[in-house]
Structures are given as C-alpha cells and as structure tokens.
Write a structure and sequence with these properties.
This protein has two helices and eight strands. The chain is mainly beta. The chain has a five-stranded antiparallel sheet, with helices on one face.
C-alpha cells in the first residue's frame, strides 16, 4: 500500500512497516540563526520554540516501535539476519544541492556500500550504508541497516527495491501547493 505525506512517497512490499512523520532536525545540521522562512518551511513545520520539523520516512521488515530514533535506535538492535531498516531523513532546502548534499537523486544501494563500521554504534553482525544527497531542491540522508553483514548479497537487493519505490515531491511543487513557503 502506497503512503504519501509531506512530499514523500513510498510503497513497500507486503509485510513491511512504514511511517512518515515530522521530527526535529538532528542537532548540528541547521546553522543557528537561519530563519525558518529561509529553510523553505511551511509555518506549521516550525514548533513554537523555534525548533524546525522535517519529514522522516522509516521502512522496516519489523514492527516500528512508537519510540525510536531518527536513525533507528530502538529498532536496529532488534533486527534478525534477514531484516532491514531504512530511514530517509530530510534536512531542508537551505542545505540542498551543496556541500554534503551536492549529490543529486535518490541513491542506488549496492552490497559494496555496506559495512559494520558505518553504524552509529557497533552492533554485532549488523551492517549499514549512509548517503547524503538532494532531490528537487530538498536535502536528505538515506540510512539503511541490514541484520547481517554476511548476508548482504541477499538483503541489500531487497532494500534497494524498496528505496527505488521512494518518491520526493520537488520544492517548487510543494511551494505551489502551499506545503512549503
């Protein structure tokens, strides 16, 4: 079943769990003093305390706990050898197309891009891949964790198929629809 929210779309295979929510931008990415209007955000994506809220898409072969981190804390430690967790995190239009986010288009996942050292904290047997990029004037990080590094030749193609089904509505269209300013 396809889900679309906040300009993100996904249609994972049957049995996958999917969530698209808004959460605070991870600390240290949005420079202090950057006005929300300069980040291309609709007023409803800025909390009263000034905290910026961006969309985050999570897709997983396991149930997604209500309390989980943007990069899968609370989920990735539960992955079995055939399980996959994918996080697509938006960082805003103010950093799109430049620096860390200069690469264009949704990344294509390959087994060679995965490694145990790419996890935020070591977890026995697990393997991860992380990509920073921009699509349509919006900046993203794609973080993928698989349950077994030794089985990556079988699990990464499954993850790649899910990522190929992700869609991003470009910033210009979002502005025209009134979903970004």
């Amino acid at each position: 079943m396809a889900v679309e929210k906040y300009g993100l779309r996904a249609a994972p295979p049957q049995g996958w769990r999917l969530s698209i929510d808004r959460r605070a931008t991870p600390a240290g990415i949005v420079p202090d003093g950057v006005a929300p209007r300069l980040q291309g955000l609709a007023p409803e994506s800025v909390e009263p305390n000034g905290e910026v809220m961006h969309p985050i898409l999570h897709a997983c072969t396991l149930d997604l706990p209500a309390q989980r981190g943007d990069f899968g804390s609370g989920v990735v430690d539960l992955l079995g050898s055939e399980d996959i967790f994918i996080s697509l995190i938006e960082y805003g239009s103010d950093v799109a197309d430049q620096g860390l986010f200069a690469d264009q288009g949704m990344p294509r996942l390959a087994p060679s891009q995965f490694g145990p050292a790419r996890l935020q904290r070591p977890l026995p047997g697990r393997s991860a891949s992380q990509h920073f990029f921009s699509v349509g004037g919006r900046a993203f990080c794609l973080f993928t964790v698989i349950g077994s590094h030794s089985r990556r030749m079988g699990t990464v193609p499954r993850a790649a198929a899910v990522v190929r089904g992700f869609g991003v509505t470009d910033r210009r269209t979002m502005v025209r629809r009134g979903e970004m300013s």
